[in-house]
Amino acid sequence: MSVTLSRINASAATLTKNRTEGSITPQSGMCVTCVDGCVGMCEIGKSAYRGHEVIYPQPFGVITTASEKTYPVDYSHFNIMGTAVGAHGIEADSDKAIFPAVDLGVTFGHDKGLKFRYPWIIPGIGSTNVATNNWEGLAIGSALAGTGLTIGENVVGMDPESVIKDGRVVDTVDLKRRVKLYKDHQREGYGAIVVQANIEDTRLGVQEYAIEQLGAEVVELKWGQGAKDIGGEVKITNLKKAQMLYERGYVVLPNPTDSHVIKAFERGAFKEFERHSRIGMVSEESFAKRVDEVRKAGAKYIFLKTGAYRPADLARAILFASKYKLDLLTVDAAGGGTGMSPWRMMNEWGVPPVELHSLLHQYAKRLTERGLKVPALALAGGFTFEDQIFKGLALGAPFVKLIGMARSPIAAAMVGKTIGRTINDGQVPVNIERFGNTKDEIFVTASALRKELGDEEFERVPTGALGLYTYYERLGQGLRQLMCGSRKFSLEYISRDDLASLTHEAADISGIPFITDLDKVQVEDILNDGCGPATRHESHQEIPVASKG
Hints:
Largest sheet: 8 strands, parallel, barrel
Strand content: 5-15%
Structural class: alpha/beta
Number of strands: 17
Strand order of the largest sheet: 4-5-8-9-13-14-15-16
Low-confidence stretches: 532-549
Radius of gyration: 26 Å
Number of domains: 4
CATH superfamily of the largest domain: Aldolase class I
Number of helices: 23
């Protein structure tokens, strides 16, 4: 049976819709009857007058976006397996093996020097407006929770107050602020602030500056992301800023120094410039050289993030990460996005999560069998809740230590920030007002956090950070419950055996057995009352059938 996986020609992401919403041709996404005289509500129609602007999700700067495509296999095609027997990581005692006793802490890095309270990380929030406008909540919330946060690409290049001399950054405002917000709220050494770099950042010397001037210990090299196969891009509504970015070496479209373009912009023919980053060109030689450069600059830990590229690129990523002794490799699968990825690319490009993550496990296992050391791995690509986090950790066990999430933490921070604004305005929405009118009443984690921090420090915590912190608290408790049900009381015990495939296709892709194929050996042993399959086969004894009474 043929199934349409993609939605075409109409989406909330591009602010478009079909005229005949109930009658749409699945192959093209067009209305079954396209009428002369329609004003162009669909993506084709909007493209007829706004052209390339419709490539991107809208409105830019206040949204995050992810693919609408339905993949043939996803993480819902697996179920988590529990058991009624035993416990791992704690005494098998009903009074001791309770879910609050589950340890969610994770340590990793070449010296096991990185420690997180939760097994997840935000893998890259860069120069987009939605990141900048919510950084306070993301940084403070992550630091208080004791998890990792990655400062994404182009932050220095986009900062009009950055001081750049001879092509190298010597001072910043935005990057300095981002690092400081996290470090000022970090507790007991848990978590990490990570400074990422793409090709433009590398040319500017961003990571060297962050290490030497801002005290950053962790840097991340970036090959790409799951949302797109090109460099990052943003919209620019200010002519002077567009010209500044052009002068700093970015690709800016249309050319903001062209007199005809300037006149067109000033008369309102278009309202936004596009700033694009260049694509990287990976080679082992250049990779090795860059790793050596940041090590010599003083980086204590080095990460690599790669995207949803073809399997050969994934193989290069894990081999290079192993060979050059990196501390973490993050693999971001198709479909995700936090900023302004081209909409059709986001839907139709790259290897989807289950397939990419299954290949990663295969490759990690092969390298280990060769005697090579594989760094800690992180999976990203649409994770939002504790069940998915458990499944990702289990699918990639024992190599996967972290799950990368970006859109859902941003959503939590945005909601927290919005609630704070309604509290200040005295206009708390009815659906929230039933919990109260103050942040102590509304945020369920507030009282405990106030006790931990003290009144003075707690009052300085923005509600965006409370939103993220509280969302993480929910994920933590939910994950503890799932792990307790599987009798796994610390993360090191989660295994692929904790999952079952619900479809044969998922089983074929992942290597996770189909649900009725689980435990066959154990079942035979149990039903033979302790006599193993071999004994039964050799004796040719039949299992007696119980009588009907």
